[in-house]
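Case study.
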Amino acid sequence: MKMGEVLKRIEIPIALTIIATLLQVLPYYFDIPALSSVASTTTNAVLLIVAYATFVGVISILLVHGKRVQRRSEGWHFSILVVVFVAIMVLTGLPLQEFGLGTNNSIFNWIFTYILTPLGGTTYSILAFFITSAAVRAFKARNIEAAIVLVSGTLMVMGNAPIFTNSVPVLADISLWIRNIPNMATMRGVMIGAALGAVALAVRTLMGIERGYLRGGGGDE
Amino acid sequence: MAFLIQGRVFGLVCLLFIMAAVAYYIKRAQAGVVPKVRRIPGIDAIDESIGRAVEMGRPVFCSHGIATLRDATAGPQTIAGLSVLNYVAKRCVAVGAKIVVPVRQPEVWPIAADIVETEYKLAGKGAEFDPECVQFLSSQQFGFSSSYMGLMMRDKPGANIMVGAYWAESLQLSETGARIGAMQITGTAQTSQIPFFLVTSDYCLIGEEIFSAGAYLTNDAMLIASLAGQDVGRIFAVLLGLLGAIVMTVGSRIFLDLFAM
Amino acid sequence: MSIMDKINNLDRRIIYLLAWIFVLYPLIFPLGLPIPISSDARAWHSYVENNIHDGDTVIFAPMYGTSGMPELFPMTVATMKHILEKDVKFVVLSFWTEGPLVFNALLRQVDPADYGKVYGVDWINLGYIPGSETAMGALATSFQNSVANDYVERRPLSDFPIMENIYTATDIDLIISFETGTPGAPEWLRQWNTAYGVNIIVGCIGVSVPGMIPYVTSGQISALMPGLTVSAEYELLLQKPGLAVAGVDAVSTSHLLIVLLVVIGNIAFFMTKEEEK
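After joint prediction, the assembly is written out as follows.
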């Protein structure tokens, strides 16, 4: 069997996954210095791999938008902007303080303060509009369950706004009760369920039977 | 046992218990006794949504969340999302639908691209694979979100499948999908985002249902059996909770001492 | 189509326009609505006032980026002003890439030097620490192994007097974390609170509050600052009204709009059902 074919075998990533999982799980429960040392080295290696993966993203963006500019595809003017800003931020943000570059660079900071920050805040703020329209659509008493959602949701909204709680102080107490009792119980249940699901997924991964994230679902090519 | 770390022994016992339950049900499955899984409408609707997109001549968007694979709570959700992507890619290739996979994390991008490309190759359509269909948009949360919204507004997908870990952008994405008339199947275990998905999408997988998606879609006996092991763990957690509440009410510290073991 | 039908099928764009008006108006023309003080604000104020003692060492962690600034920056600034009035040492760090940039923005509003705090002696900025929860766990076991240099002067930690007594999580008395997502409170709880017993107080956005409550009621999170409204109340308790007080009128009017639309929408819904019958 050629080396290329050997490396393509699905058993290799499965084995690597199992080893990596054990290296993280075992040191959490067992105090074995040698194992902790290997786990720590592995973790550092993973962080390095992830750091290098950042370049993959930048390269992907440059390839996609570069091709759009080359082909004059629809919206290619915006692709020029993307490429230009990627280049500026990458270059000015390089950790070379001796050349005046890095996160204290004036151009980097200007773009961060006057372009990125307002854009990020604005995009996040779109949620206000979406929440309003979603609430208007969702808070309709079509049935008993929807009516419960309507009443509790409306009380929570009112309990969080000074315009209501100042006039009707009991609204704050009611919304606090909804938050601290039924909501807390539900959240606990969902969180525990999700955690158990994650544990089961991890156990399946550890046993090598969860292969959905592998190429072809873990099947042979 | 001096090398066991104090305060974590009970956690280890619980983990071993769940692993034993999973192993037990897998063994039974191998002997032909496969547990029945209740229907999860959201997962059943994936084929319907892909078919709808093909009829409309529109692409299928499939996103696996915005988390990395390394987060303790969000990483498993990304793996679940990639399992769903695997199935969706397979179905899209089979029916000739165009698939678009928006990606936020650079480290996940090669995995997602590999999954989609492999499905094309397995179907003998390797030449039809377009690398640009798996697009890295931005590692900034709202850069990703605004890019994804823009993609949806321009390409108008017939189906938008979002299973994985999402945060504040969840409502933005699903509301945009609702606006353009896409059939939406969503799922996340992020408790703060479940309400938003429930309100804006056609089908929503809640919490641990997303971790079952891989098993459900492949119909693999061993994976389905592992779900039964997961349920044993859930029953154990409920019993612990009930007993703990009773024991603490009567003033005993036995459970606290057990957890600190 | 009757009026009720039109209301029932109200165009989203009209809702967006109304939301825009209801939010923008009080920002331009402040209404000065009274702000009652809630138990959450009192609890946070009381904790910072009474449970942070002179000589304590605190981690101050802005764990959010630019998108979270509108809601979290006011509480971050207010809390920083509060702890600067105390004789505590604080270590600024973040596991979010934009955390140091958020702190730089804070420094433009609040200068520790104005409170007599000397960099390197009373406080230090370790900047962004990559690695998410793994890095949090590593930091808990050793600051010096996790962070080579400080963020401001790029010098080894051993050069700074404040770090002479800070080596592991056991040397920290409190974590103050402001966050919008992951990594955040659950990660702090797993790596620092459960493992080392370090107390933590958390300021978060409104959407995250339901998920934080189980930790608050169990006592794992000692105090919670849930969103902009409570930030405004906290500023009033400190008698230092700031960004939060300036923005809370918009919170009130936007919530009023939601309630009005929901009520009108339900009236239209039931009347349309009646007509169909």
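Observations recorded in class. Chain A has two domains: 9-92, 139-213. Residues 139-213 of chain A form one domain. We will return to this complex in the next lecture.
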